[in-house]
Amino acid sequence: MNPIKALKQLDCAIKICEYQPFERRVRITLEAAKIIRLSLTQLYPDDCEICHGCMGGVKGNENIINGRTVCDYCHSAELEEEK
Predict the structure, then answer these.
(1) Which domain holds residue 80?
(2) Can you spell out the DSSP letters for 1-19?
């Protein structure tokens, strides 16, 4: 299965569990599903406008520097260049 599709299905399942917490078909707790979703999301490439996720930054941990979204690695590389 496509990981993005799996993540979307997990998001959908979490939304259902939040409204129907006693659903018998669900075999995972809501808290466990949220942890799994967070773990999977962090494996995806980040939205860095410089390296496009190639440096290994964590998705969701990007910085906005001079109006650009950059990862910590590219941000530190820019700081080194300024020295």
Answers:
(1) 45-83
(2) --HHHHHHHHHHHHHHHHH
